[in-house]
Design a protein that fits this description.
With about 190 residues, the protein is α+β, with helices and mostly antiparallel strands. Helices cover about 25% and strands about 45% of the residues.
């Protein structure tokens, strides 16, 4: 299992432009189109899981994320073009076997996101992280809202070091902490909330 520790911050397009310009990093552009899945009964969201298929520059990656007691998330990913076919593959990687008990045929798109990510690796004192600048839209219920945020995802090393680095960027660029995932925000949009 991969364990995901990431910090998200709301930003404006101008703040992201400034971050990109001032941080001398090797930014890679990734076009992302995400579909989040659930059953009509909400079997996935009731477990506080996220089940998605994301196209990353045309490559289809299916992912399951689950909450962990320390506030981070369990994460399993597999290259696969179909969410239903990905379920047994995710379980073979260590995802909860309970995933197999879901009615895979009942899974349907619940909401989504479409955005461009500028990503770069950052090595700082005590950790390596991926810094991502995301710009696009969240989709749900036939509506869309703007998406503009910075993510700092720990790849190795100390969580405290990653937090210190992200908080320094937050302070310098006046970013606002965003505790909700893209899925949580898109799901609320789909529900008209």
């Amino acid at each position: 299992m991969g364990r995901e520790f990431e910090l998200k911050y709301r930003a404006t397009p101008e703040q992201l432009q400034l971050l990109r310009a001032e941080l001398a990093l090797d930014w890679q552009s990734i076009s992302m189109e995400t579909v989040y899945y659930d059953t009509p009964a909400g079997d996935v969201s009731r477990r506080k899981w996220t089940l998605r298929r994301r196209y990353e520059n045309g490559l289809s990656v299916c992912t399951l994320k689950t909450p962990l007691p320390d506030g981070s998330r369990g994460e399993w990913e597999v290259e696969c073009g179909d969410i239903r076919s990905a379920i047994p593959m995710l379980c073979k990687l260590g995802a909860p076997e309970e995933l197999l008990s879901l009615d895979a045929e009942a899974l349907q798109p619940a909401c989504g996101a479409r955005f461009t990510r500028l990503a770069a690796s950052v090595s700082c004192d005590g950790c390596t992280l991926e810094l991502a600048l995301d710009s696009g839209v969240l989709l749900g219920g036939g509506r869309e809202i703007p998406l503009c945020e910075m993510e700092a995802e720990l790849k190795s090393g100390s969580e405290n070091a990653a937090l210190a680095y992200a908080e320094a960027l937050q302070s310098r660029y006046h970013l606002i902490p965003e505790p909700r995932s893209k899925y949580a925000r898109a799901s609320r949009l789909a529900k008209g909330e």
